[in-house]
């Protein structure tokens, strides 16, 4: 297996769409040697914007994003290819670059071929790769566009994991799943991330998911991280007004963090 040395970092990152950037001066390091990082905050605060800028999908307006020290967006051909397999992301809608007209089998086989070509050990069959996210073999012949939102979300996770990434960025990865699948998927993700030493960044409103996966959680507000801690610390002793808001509503939905 490829040595896990990749790192993805933001330095004074400024990003967003309107006249006021949603992300305004963020520093962040995601790598297999740092623990998983969670990003929480109000709806529309810029979580997706941050992830899209970290993957290079959205251009930074200031500061920079580095992959192994080189600026993302200005990577040479070789580094670009390595970036493509070492850093994977799963977007909120679960498509993540998958072609809806393709069958599940074709899409996953394409991912596995890409990983093999990049020298990443993938003994897995397409069947084995989707089973990781609790999708049965009967899904292999289905087109991606025919899948339900939750099936597509699990396929997108399976596709990203099948290339054995060093770094995984997840944007609301469980929104389309029912509660029992949410639990199963978050448990499975935690196992895979730990076993394979994957650097993980997760943005989500699902604090159960964040709590299971991420020992360190940043609260995003007004363009920067206003508070950092474990989910327990943030909910039990919130300091910032936004964190207090979250703490007020969350214990009423689950007693996990009391
Ligand atoms: N393509 C776009 N064009 C213009 N503005 C956008 C675009 N995408 C997002 N925005 C705006 O940028 C801001 C940040 O959006 P973003 O999607 O990053 O928030 P978020 O924290 O991920 O929200 P949510 O929790 O609701 O998913 C919002 O005000 C949003 O309306």
UniProtKB/TrEMBL annotation:
SMART domains: AAA
Keywords assigned: ATP-binding, Nucleotide-binding, Transport
Pfam family, one: ABC_tran
Coiled-coil spans in chain: none
UniProt-recorded name of the protein: ABC-type dipeptide/oligopeptide/nickel transport system, ATPase component
GO molecular function term, any single one: ATP hydrolysis activity
GO biological process, one term: transmembrane transport
Domain ABC transporter span(s) in chain numbering: 3-247
């Amino acid at each position: 297996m490829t040595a896990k040395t990749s790192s993805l970092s933001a330095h004074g990152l400024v990003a967003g769409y309107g006249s006021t950037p949603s992300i305004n001066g963020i520093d962040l390091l995601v790598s297999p040697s740092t623990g998983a990082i969670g990003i929480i905050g109000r709806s529309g605060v810029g979580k997706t914007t941050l992830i899209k800028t970290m993957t290079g999908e959205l251009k930074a307006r200031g500061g920079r994003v580095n992959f192994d020290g080189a600026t993302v967006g200005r990577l040479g051909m070789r580094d670009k290819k390595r970036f493509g397999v070492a850093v994977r992301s799963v977007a909120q809608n679960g498509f993540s670059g998958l072609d809806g007209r393709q069958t599940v089998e074709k899409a996953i086989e394409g991912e596995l071929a890409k990983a093999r070509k990049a020298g990443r050990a993938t003994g897995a069959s397409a069947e084995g790769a989707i089973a990781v996210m609790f999708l049965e073999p009967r899904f292999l012949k289905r087109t991606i566009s025919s899948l339900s939102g939750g099936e597509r979300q699990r396929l997108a996770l399976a596709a990203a994991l099948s290339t054995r990434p060093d770094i995984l960025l997840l944007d609301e990865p469980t929104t389309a799943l029912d509660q029992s699948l949410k639990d199963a998927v978050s448990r499975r993700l935690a196992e895979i991330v730990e076993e394979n030493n994957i650097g993980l960044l997760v943005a989500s409103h699902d604090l159960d998911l964040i709590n299971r996966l991420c020992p360190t959680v940043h609260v995003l507000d007004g363009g920067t991280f206003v508070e950092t801690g474990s989910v327990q610390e943030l909910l039990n002793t919130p300091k910032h007004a936004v964190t207090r808001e979250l703490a007020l509503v969350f214990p009423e939905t689950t007693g996990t963090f009391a």
